[in-house]
Each structure stands twice: as C-alpha cells, then as structure tokens.
C-alpha cells in the first residue's frame, strides 16, 4: 500500500503522448505522491491510458475522474480540490501533464509547505528573472507583463500570479469558498492565489524552469489571457468590498 499525504491533480485534454510518461515520472520520485487525473472527455484515449495503468500497476495511488467535454481548467481543479478534501491529503498540487512543469520540482514545492511554513508554494517562472525555455518571445512577454499588471493593479506581491504549478496546504482549500471562485481559465490561477493572500495565508515562490511542451498541442489561447487581464480589475474591486473567510488559528 503506497500511502501519501500529497495528491497531484493533473487536468487533461488530449494528452496521450504525455500521459504515461508524466505518471511514471511522478511515481519514480523518492517522495511518494498520489495522482488524480481529471480528463475532460479526451477523444484521443487519454483516459483509457490512465485506466490501463490503474488496472495493471498503480491501483492504490492513481485515480481518475472523467468529465463530459471541455469544462475549463478552473472547474477541473475545483473538482479535484473537493475530491482531495474528502480524503486525508494534507498537500494538494496543481501540475500540467505536458512536462512544462518538471516533476522533479514537486518535492521542492512540498518542502516549502511541509518544512518551511508556507501555506501556498508557487512554482515561479519569474521570481529570479525569466526562467522559460522554448516559448515564443511574444508569449513570454505576454505572460511576464500579465503578472506585472496583476501586481500593479492589486498590490499583490507575487511574481508569477498565473503559474499553474502550485502546492496548497489542506487548510487553504478548506478556508477558500471554492464554489465562489468564478474564473475558468488562467484567471482562475490568479483568483486562487489572490484569495489565499487576502485571507492571510503565507505564499512562497519557488524558482522553477518552465519548458514548453515537446509533445501534444498547447491549450493556450488569446481568450484565456483576456479573461486573466480583464478579471484582475474585478478581483481588485472584490478586495475592497468583499468579506473574505476568516483563517482559523492552527
């Protein structure tokens, strides 16, 4: 029995080229992590790859939720967070399937929360400069200046607010009112971090190198970034007028 205090949530849509590789990479780490794949009806058979691995090798630490059609990154993670909170996981991770997030960095995010006292650990591309490999320069600039824009509008001092490589302590997800998280694309990432910050949780950025996917197709679009950019003003207004949940003393 492979018991773990940590679950890595991986949303997928058409990731057959990467699925088995990313699962095996996570399970090869010295630190034991469980994985929850949330597949949005991938027509390429991504979910079947996961099912086959569950049946043949990893029944006690690999899990799958299948959803009908593309419902958005944010709703996938909210589904995963609720699933994790129904079980005994203390640390809940977000990670992409395409190796843009290096599985070898998972223990570093874990240590930031488990050993160093952070409530949220963010795998940051920008905390020590611009650590992005093989991205078109236009996309690098769009992402980098989007994070600067968020800092300017909200006063929220995190360098990589749109990062999707994150570790949350259980208490953070229990305190955030998950059903009130509104955004579905990359603004979801900003909203989760900003809400944790407004409640009073400690956020630590861990420098990582982001490598553009080698296999499969990117799900990024201009509309996703537009949601992030225009949603920030709404978050700022919320920061002035919304009553956030109270952090319980541990």
Radius of gyration: 17 Å
| Count of helical stretches | 8
Q: Please bin the fraction of helical residues.
A: 40-55%
The overall pLDDT, averaged over residues, is: 88
Give the N-to-C terminal Cα separation.
Answer: 30 Å
Secondary-structure element string? EHEHEHEHEEHEHHEEH
**Strand fraction:** 15-25%
Described by the principal axes of the CA atoms, the overall outline is globular
- Largest sheet: spatial strand order: 3-2-1-4-7-5-8
Please state the structural category: alpha/beta
Number of beta-strand segments:
9
Low-pLDDT parts are none
Major sheet characteristics: 7 strands, mixed
Overview of this protein structure:
With 250 residues, this protein is an alpha/beta fold. It has 8 helices and 9 strands. Strands 3-2-1-4-7-5-8 form a 7-stranded mixed sheet, sandwiched between helices. The longest helix has 20 residues. The radius of gyration is 17 Å and the shape is globular. The model has no long low-confidence stretch (mean pLDDT 88).
């Amino acid at each position: 029995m492979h018991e773990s205090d940590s679950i890595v949530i991986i949303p997928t849509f058409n990731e057959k080229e990467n699925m088995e590789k990313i699962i095996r990479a996570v399970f090869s780490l010295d630190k034991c992590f469980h994985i929850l794949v949330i597949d949005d009806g991938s027509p390429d058979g991504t979910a079947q790859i996961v099912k086959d691995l569950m049946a043949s090798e990893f029944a006690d630490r690999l899990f799958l939720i299948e959803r009908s059609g593309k419902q958005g990154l944010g709703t996938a993670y909210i589904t995963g967070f609720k699933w994790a909170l129904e079980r005994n996981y203390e640390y809940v991770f977000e990670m992409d399937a395409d190796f843009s997030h290096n599985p070898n960095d998972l223990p570093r995010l874990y240590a930031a929360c488990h050993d160093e006292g952070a409530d949220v650990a963010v795998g940051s591309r920008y905390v020590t400069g611009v650590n992005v490999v093989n991205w078109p320069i236009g996309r690098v600039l769009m992402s980098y200046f989007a994070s600067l824009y968020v800092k300017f509008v909200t006063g929220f001092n995190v360098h990589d607010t749109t990062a999707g490589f994150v570790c949350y302590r259980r208490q953070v997800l229990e305190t955030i009112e998950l059903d009130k998280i509104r955004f579905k694309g990359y603004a979801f990432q900003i909203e989760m971090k900003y809400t944790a910050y407004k409640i009073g949780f400690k956020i630590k950025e861990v420098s990582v190198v982001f490598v553009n996917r080698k296999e499969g197709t990117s799900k990024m679009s201009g509309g996703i970034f537009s949601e992030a950019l225009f949603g920030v003003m709404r978050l700022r207004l919320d920061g002035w007028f919304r009553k956030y949940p109270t952090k319980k003393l541990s």
